[in-house]
Every structure is written in C-alpha cells, then in structure tokens.
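User: quick one, fold this
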Amino acid sequence: MTNDFVQAPATSGRSLSYEEMLSDTTLSNDQREALVAETLMAYLSILLVRRGDVTTAQLLLQVDRWKLDWDEEGREKDLVLEVDPANKSHFTDDLLQKLRHLCQEISGRFDLGVSWVEVRETLPVVGPGWREMVQREISGERPTNQARRLQPAPRRWLEDNLAFTNEGEQRVYRLLKHRQEKVLPAEETIAIFPLPNGRIAGRTWEPDFLVTYKGRAGILEIDGPHHNARRALDVTREHLMRDSGVAYIDRVPVEALDNRVELEHVLDRFLRRLAESR
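Assistant:
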C-alpha cells in the first residue's frame, strides 16, 4: 500500500520521475512528506535488486505502509515502515542497519534530510466488535494469504518461489518434491501446494500442505509442540475438511522432522492412503 500524495502531471506523454516530482514547489508539506517516503521506498527497493540483494528487496515488498515521522530524540524525520506484527521479527537489527545506510545514501543524493529507518507493527482496524475478533484469531481464523505471505528468513525457507514458515515445512516439501520428480512416473505424479489459503464451512484456514494425487486431494499437517492443546480444534477441522471433499488427512509428528527415514515413511504412507481413499 502506498501513501497518498498529489502526483505531478505527466509531460510529453511520459510519467515524471520522483526526482522531477520532488522539484514541484506547489506541493503542501504533507504531500511532500508522502512523496519523500514513497521516493525512498522506491529507490531502496530498486537499488537493493540492482546490487544483488533480492532477499531484502522481497522483504520491502511486504511492507504495508510507509511514512515520515518526527523523531523527537534525533530531532529529524525518520522513514517508518509498518509491517504485520507476525512479520516484524524478520526485520532484524542487521537488516535495519543495511536499510539505514542505504537510506542515508539516497537521502544525501536528493537532499531529503532522512537518515534513519524504523519498523513498527501495523495496527489492525478494530471496532466495538473486538471481543469477537480476538476469539476468531485465537481459533486460528486470522486472515492470511500465500501470495502476500512474508517470506521469513528467505535464504533458508524460500524454495521454488514458495515461502515456508519454518525449516520443518521446507524439509517436508523437499521430500514430497523428490517423489514428484524422481520417484513417481510423470504421467501419475503429485501436485504440491504449501500453505494454501482457503475456506471450509464456517471459517477460513491455511493447511500446511495440500497434495493432489490420482484424482484426489489430501491435506498434510505438521504437528507443533503445542499440538495436544489444540487437538479438539484439529478434530473439528478434519471433520469439516472431509465434509468438504478432502479425501484424506494425515499428520506429520514433530519428532519425524529430524529423522529422514521416519519422515519418508510418513510421507509414503500418506500418498499410499490418499491414492486408496474413497
């Protein structure tokens, strides 16, 4: 999402560059600040890509909003990036230092007077129905989307342009992909959909893996350390999934993630039972 500002009109059939737009003396203070923030975000992202740091550029694409904000301590304007609370931890101190150095470089070139980058959590839109909102999120119904999902620690958990939330998910994906490409015949293989977002009766939900095989769709979930506390909710979801046409549902014990032989046994059993399901 970008901030709103009055864009200078195009001339000679082309859009003006940010450098040309910044020279517009008719902008109000608020419009200029929005334009400066937009300019910094644009140059940060483009320069990161051109300097080979695609990973950090991808993270910037997940920023919800950006703006300039007065820093009382530093007595200057800071570039503030607002991100989803679940994503804030991925903007580490090292990454912020990198962004600050680059921001200083860009700001100095255009005399923008911005030398600091800060990250804050995006506040949700909350109203009088906040209690119901909290209950829905506790029940796991917080809106997510694979296409908008932040790619956490991309150098470790990004593969084939698909994002994973942890190493265990990526490990399961790699073994499924091995079966897809090396074990099963091309005319009778599987499709793998990590972290798809969808809706079943009464709720939206994001399973760990949706796998299709021999005309059937199956769900594969990875148990976490707190799985037992959520077992009742898991059973309810499994009933809803079966009622919605999912042929087979299975779970990967968290203990199997560190044992390749055991994990392969779990995956082979899942595919066999999915193929045999009626």
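User: anything notable?
Assistant: The radius of gyration is 24 Å.
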